[in-house]
Write a structure and sequence with these properties.
Helices cover 44% and strands 15% of the residues. It is of the alpha/beta class and 213 residues long.
Length: 213
């Protein structure tokens, strides 16, 4: 929370009904100079379209009313305003092939969603890489995580780990070193940014016009 208070951005998220963990994540994102995000099962929240985010939230199995879902979608879209600020952070996304192929929301939603990934990846401060199935086993098979880098702060970085047992933060030097090393390993085995965008475009086209067997 101290890191969130150090952010130069106004705490626009204070009006949302969210828990402290999520509130802290948004504060960290707003203060970040760089964000490294690995997602194996779904596309990153900072790249999601409203329809995709809506389908993700509906499919999570939690009891939410439609107004609650819409509030969460609105919040997720508001988080993306860091992409358009004057000094946006450098965003490095690594996603598993499964996240590009899972038909969350159906074919039309996925086609638009993958198109958005391609469009955002054209920005100079955004990198998207895909780990395809042929890469085999890798150090991050247990699940997704993110690293938020923050300058002029008491901590140089924070690791955010999500799971069914709850979300938590790691800020110890050893943890940061380990997760940075893992992310570097993922970057090295993933397709290059250019190859990744070609891959995403090919998956989008396959979803748009599926083969008839």
């Amino acid at each position: 929370m101290a890191l969130a208070r150090e952010s130069k951005e106004r705490a626009w998220w204070q009006g949302y009904d969210i828990d402290a963990t999520y509130r802290t994540l948004i504060g960290l994102e707003s203060a970040a100079t760089a964000i490294s995000d690995y997602q194996p099962f779904s596309l990153p929240g900072l790249l999601q379209t409203p329809d995709y985010a809506r389908a993700v939230l509906r499919g999570m199995g939690e009891k939410r009313t439609e107004p609650e879902i819409e509030e969460q979608v609105s919040l997720r879209m508001a988080r993306q305003q860091i992409l358009d600020r004057d000094d946006p952070p450098y965003l490095s996304f690594i996603i598993d092939e499964a996240a590009t192929r899972r038909l969350i929301g159906g074919r039309e939603v996925m086609v638009r969603q993958l198109g958005t990934v391609l469009a955002v990846a054209e920005r100079p401060n955004v990198s998207v890489q895909v780990i395809d199935y042929e890469a085999g086993a890798h150090p991050a098979l247990p699940g997704n995580f993110g690293i938020v880098e923050i300058e002029d702060s008491a901590a140089s970085g924070i690791v955010f780990v999500e799971g069914h047992q709850g979300d938590f933060y790691l800020e110890g030097a050893a943890d940061l070193k380990r997760y940075r090393r893992i992310f570097d390993q993922l970057r090295s085995i993933a397709l290059s940014p250019n190859k990744s965008l070609e891959f995403v475009a090919a998956v989008r086209d396959q979803i748009r016009t599926p083969e008839v067997h």
